[in-house]
Design brief:
Elements (H helix, E strand, L loop, with lengths): L1 E3 L6 E3 L35 E3 L3 E2 L1 H8 L3 H34 L4 H29 L1 H19 L5 H15 L3 H8 L4 H33 L1 H8 L1 H9 L7 H6 L3 H15 L7 E2 L11 H4 L5 H30 L17 H12 L1 H15 L1 H18 L6 H29 L2 H32 L1 H20 L13
Parallel strand pairs: 4-5
Antiparallel strand pairs: 1-2, 2-3
GO cellular component, one term: membrane
InterPro entries: MFS_dom, MFS_sugar_transport-like, MFS_trans_sf
Pfam family, one: Sugar_tr
């Protein structure tokens, strides 16, 4: 325990005992100059250490308070947010073919249904990042949950393709805030657990994707795609109701000069984790009055990192959602049309949904493998190797038409790219300082959405014309992104989040 010693800035730490060190007039068993006899107990000085300063930072407090019940609760909150996001994204692989059959829309319009969601996400990512840096992570996530639920529910009653495109675009606009939940989560994690815990968030993403496939298998053939949209909005409603209990980032409070609120949050962590609260004064390292901006991301010290991360994130989204959409095309392409006059309609059968579920389950081993590698080999090498492995997997699609082999190839590729996406989510908040962290993640997310906007025209349009050309495009992007990972200037394994 830390003990105040008069006349010093520091503390003396005496194990198991709290006592003020006697003044220079007090001695053990002797009479002072005033004539009073003081009996002071003897202590084992081997347990005493002098701390040179009585200040601490948020990073030091988070590391000292460790991982406990506070982080478990936050994991469930943020995990629900990711699960809801995953369900909205997985809908896209089912919604396009369903609309193609029911409304007889063209392949380009089918791709547009997917593209407009990512357009909304791209346009809003920097907006949500700036909003989070200015007003806090919690208000932004609260608004995000409300808007997602509202627009998701309204999408189910869209009377025409035009209305559906508008509403799905607004859904995408709200989803653009979801990456801020990772920023909030990472800022409450001790250094040793941060990489593993952020990657474990992908478990909730994979859970949401699997749940959506099962839901689609049960709902679409019987009730149609409108009921699928209605039911899929339920987790968003739950998240919106729970956001009042979300904690605000202590780093955000300190960077805004609200140390009292930051201390309250840290005391709550100490209480939930059953750890003693640190003594002393809370300070911020590297204080700055500059708010996050794109211009700051492109400063001389961060320009190379930012540009490479933008390309890596764009490639991640392009490759991930491309594989998701290609899986639906591969499994449904041999089905006979059940709609007269629409010979190009290939509705998914139960066996197709089951194969989609198997490939989606691949995200779980992909996550745990990434957890193992990322803390041993580092973030950069892990991402570079995974991009290479993904390129090999998609090339194998062209060498066989056997259903079992294709499912195995897609299983491996899905696991690799899912783990890679989460590795990027670990690295990005670590490499940016606090005042740029949200806008940094938001900027990367915007470029990721650009890649996702383009991928439907490769996975759903070009793939129908030439499987080989579509696969070559994905392999080329993955190989270039692997090189970009190697050239990232910083390795962040084992580092504290910068103040």
């Amino acid at each position: 325990m830390q003990i105040r010693r008069p006349g010093t800035k520091g503390y003396e730490e005496v194990e198991g005992v709290t006592i003020s060190t006697p003044s220079t007039h007090e001695t053990n068993g002797h009479t002072d100059s005033i004539g009073h006899n003081h009996l002071v107990p003897e202590f084992e000085l081997a347990s005493v250490s002098v701390v040179p300063d009585d200040t601490f930072t948020v990073a030091q407090a988070v590391n000292a308070l460790g991982f406990g019940w506070f982080q478990v609760k936050l994991s469930l909150f943020v995990g629900l947010c990711w699960m809801s996001d995953s369900m909205e994204m997985t809908i896209l692989s089912v919604l396009g073919p369903a609309l193609h059959c029911e409304w007889n829309i063209s392949r380009y319009h089918q791709a547009l249904v997917t593209t407009v969601v990512f357009l909304g996400m791209m346009l809003s990512s920097t907006f949500w990042g700036s909003l989070s840096d200015r007003y806090g992570r919690k208000p932004a996530l609260t608004l995000c949950g409300i808007l997602l639920f509202l627009y998701g529910l309204l999408s189910a009653v869209a009377p025409s393709l035009g209305w559906l495109l508008l509403l799905r675009g607004l859904v995408g606009f709200a989803i653009g805030c979801v990456p801020q939940s990772v920023t909030l989560y990472a800022e409450f994690l001790p250094t040793k657990q941060r990489g593993k815990c952020v990657v474990l968030l992908d478990c909730f993403w994979a859970l949401g994707a699997c749940f959506e496939v099962v839901l689609a298998m049960a709902v679409v053939p019987n009730l149609g795609w409108r009921w699928l949209l209605r039911i899929s909005a339920a987790p968003l409603f739950v998240f919106a109701c729970l956001t009042p209990w979300l904690p605000e980032s202590a780093r955000y409070h300190v960077s805004c000069g609200q140390n009292d609120k930051a201390l309250t949050t840290l005391e709550n962590i100490a209480k939930d984790n059953r750890r003693p609260m640190l003594l002393g004064r809370l300070v911020v390292e590297g204080t700055s009055n500059t708010r996050g901006s794109i211009k700051a991301l492109l400063s001389s010290s961060l320009r190379r990192t930012t540009i490479l991360l933008w390309f890596i994130w764009m490639s991640c989204a392009f490759c991930y959602y491309g594989l998701v959409l290609m899986s639906t095309e591969i499994f449904g392409r041999d089905n006979k049309s059940l709609i007269p006059g629409n010979e190009d309609c290939h509705a998914l059968a139960t066996t197709d949904y089951m194969d989609l579920l198997w490939t989606t389950l691949a995200e779980f081993p992909g996550i745990f493998t990434t957890i193992y590698i990322i803390e041993r080999c580092g973030r950069k090498k892990t991402m570079a190797f995974q991009f290479l492995l993904y390129a090999g997997c998609v090339l194998l699609i062209t060498i066989t038409t056997e259903r079992v082999l294709l499912t195995l190839i897609l299983f491996l590729g899905r696991g690799v790219i899912a783990g890679l996406f989460q590795a990027a989510y670990v690295y990005t908040p670590e490499v940016y300082p606090t005042n740029l962290r949200s806008v940094g993640v938001g900027g990367c997310s915007s470029l990721a959405r650009l890649g996702a906007m383009c991928t439907p025209y490769v996975a759903q349009v070009l793939f129908q014309a030439s499987v080989g050309q579509a696969v070559a495009v994905y392999s080329a992007f993955a190989l270039c992104a692997s090189v970009a990972c190697i050239f990232l200037p910083y390795e962040t394994r084992g580092n504290d989040l910068s103040q």
